[in-house]
Amino acid sequence: MSMTDTLIETPADVQQMNMIQAINSAMDVMMDRDPTVVVMGEDVGFFGGVFRATAGLQAKHGKNRVFDTPITECGIIGVAVGMGAYGLRPVPEIQFADYIYPALDQLVSEAARLRYRSAGEFIAPMTVRSPFGGGIFGGQTHSQSPEGIFTHCSGIKTVIPSTPYDAKGLLIAAIEDNDPTIFFEPKRIYNGPFDGHYDTPAKSWAGHADAQVPAGYYRIPLGKARIAREGQALTILCYGTMVHVVENTVAAHGVDAEIIDLRSLVPLDIDTIEESVRKTGRCLIVHEATRTSGFGAELLAQVQERCFYHLEAPIERVTGFDTPYPHSLEWAYFPGPVRIREAINKIMKD
Amino acid sequence: MSDPIGSGVTEGQAGRNLPPLRLHVPEPPARPGESADFTHFDIPAADAAPRPDETAQPGDMRDLAYGLVRVLDEDGAAVGAWNPKLPPETHLRMLRYMALTRAFDARMFRAQRQGKTSFYMKSTGEEAVSIGAALALARDDMCFPSYRQQGILLARDWPLVDMMNQIYSNTGDRLKGRQLPIMYSAREAGFFSISGNLTTQYPQAVGWAMASAARGDTRIAATWCGEGSTAEGDFHSACTFASVYRAPVIMNVVNNQWAISSFSGFAGAEATTFAARAVGYGIAGLRVDGNDILAVYAATRWAADRARANGGPTLIEHFTYRVEGHSTSDDPTAYRSAEESSLWPLGDPIARLKAHCITLGIWDEDRHAAMDKELAELVRDAAREAEKNGILGHGLHHPMESMFEDVFEEMPWHLKEQQQQMLDEWKAAGL
Predict the structure, then answer these.
(1) In a 10 Å sphere around its CB, with 0-12 CB exposed, 13-18 middle and 19+ buried, how is residue B390 labelled?
(2) Of A39, A252, B45, B292, whose CB neighbour count within 10 A is largest?
């Protein structure tokens, strides 16, 4: 697909939105444009979702297209596979990414493999939305970042936005995409960007440039990263909540880092990564997910394979620890400003 | 008392006047070398089951989940309220499709033994389950089968050569050699891509049916699984969804008594019937003599009419027997009594319909023998045709680079890179 960032709306249609509103708007726009789009999940109908992401959609588009489901993630995704085979374009919500495991067989063995095993006779054009990540005192069952499980599986795309503008444009692209897509929403930044300092008052998206969102249709192509900050000293690869934590840490630290918001892990924008690391010669990878076999390991391998002779220092990773996500010790687990700063210092020392 | 596993439990129990707990691990009635005994089977008379109206409330027809819907009696007569009273030509079509399925299975099983493919699964003894259902459904109703419903494709007149190309994974295989043999996919025949992971098709069928209902369509869905895999969570998720949204779907449980080497007791058959699973979900449940094709047809037609009238889902247990091994990969004489299939009290589905047709005066032994001979030749000729496209492991397969196609709609860079690397490596190796 050759897609560009196409703004169809005039600037007058641009509105201030938080990430929830942007995601809601993406589904609303797509349900207006495409009668085959259906939204389903636990509590998504009349109530509008536990995070309000589907608020108002059932009232506007009807119960045949926006409906509550039984509490069985296996059933939700299995039903979405069948609806896709019929010709619908389902957008199921898994209430928390931590609840996605019962659906794993339907996602990995069915949705992700259907096109391949039927040689294109049947496809699963679903977009699975799910809030993920920590920073909200959710404990180990409301904080996980399981993106690495899906990037490891062939046949499924994994997309993670970091701003309201990106959330809407990427979600529209994911819904229009004919392959199954996991769309992980960083719930810590639903209502405002997070600088990593949990003990300071939470910010809202009000006034943020990336919270200016067109009311209508636009799309951001899957597989195209965003350079969140241009710089010369080192490259920092990150996505979701960590983009904001990294931005603030870099600003506070006064280092001239190039910050790349990956947006999409599969497909990955390897060209942007390679170009940046070849320029800076240093690379730091930051994600909230556990370290071993995390997506950072793949990024590290790719950078090593492609940029080895341009590197001035070993590639570093700042990640969640290989423990369950703790409750009271959340801020010791979270890869926050202290750990990011230490890693930057280590890389820049060489 | 000694405590060999050191749990401390026996010590703690000392002085407590309670019986020790016992774990029940089911055991089939007969193992190899033992005599099969089906005298304990409670087989109701062929005309015993009442036939409720298609609009009946599930709660008013619960007995049917514990009884047995039958039509053909012991004398080969069609009796009772479920008799579909089909015209003679339909009987003969049923007979022919069942015999074709058996002939196809025989040929392909032999092809596997001859090393022409890796795997095969026969449906011997269960032909009525697929053929009866396929003929009772509309041609455009959507089927989400398990791996032993090849009869559906045959009853929908899908080309034998196409099925065999898939079994041989050859250059003519529309699925490009990607799937284990018999994991067909035939969208034009309303036949969903078969998964090797069990019962995943159940919620998918319900989802298809929900979509059909939500769009105001008139087509319904049907799905099949074995009794063993009713234990999967997908089965129960599907039943819940089907019940909640009153989906126009027929959920078939083929109770052929054996899940590889595990008898039906490991799926709960000692405690209740599989049709009785419907009771807890408030779904209409029917338990049917799966070796009686007229009963299978009648039950499927009842469920289809019910679904089309927005009466919701039906769960049908087809009580049958898996005459052969699970697949070409297991030897059933290693885990069950060799006598079982010959003593199966509900007989053989082809023999029973044949006897009925002879009783009706529309068929005879000579014509049956001639049909079997003709079908064997038909299947043989198709196999020869398919083998021109290659057999597994003899080089006639789709090109190597096709491995990377259809993972996504458009091939992303990392797959292109891996594809090129593979080709370069083979080229460098001089292959």
Answers:
(1) buried
(2) B292
A268 contacts B238? CB cut-off 8 A: no
Q: Which residue is closest to B222 within chain A, CA to CA? A: A82
- Closest chain A residue by Cα to residue B214: A64
pLDDT tens-digit readout, A263-322: 999 999 999 999 999 999 999 999 999 999 999 999 999 999 999 999 999 999 999 999
Chain B residue numbers with beta carbons less than 8 Å from the beta carbon of A118 are: 175, 185, 187, 193
| Tally of residues, chain B | 431
Q: Identify all chain A residues contacting B241, using CB atoms and an 8 Å cutoff.
A: 69-70, 72, 75, 79
Q: Judge: B203–A1 Cβ closer than 8 Å, yes or no.
A: no
Give the gap in angstroms from C-alpha A35 to the nearest C-alpha of chain B: 10
* CA A112/CA A106 separation, integer angstroms: 8
- Tokens of residue B60, six digits: 């008013």
- For residue B196, give how far its alpha carbon lies from the nearest alpha carbon of chain A (Å): 9
pTM, entire model = 0.96
CA B52 to chain centre: 26
Q: In a 10 Å sphere around its CB, with 0-12 CB exposed, 13-18 middle and 19+ buried, how is residue A274 labelled?
A: middle
Q: With a cut of 0.85, is the ipTM above it? A: yes
R_g over Cα of chain B: 24
Q: What is the pLDDT of residues B234-249, one digit of tens each?
A: 999 999 999 999 999 9
Q: Using only C-alpha atoms, what is the Rg of chain A?
A: 19
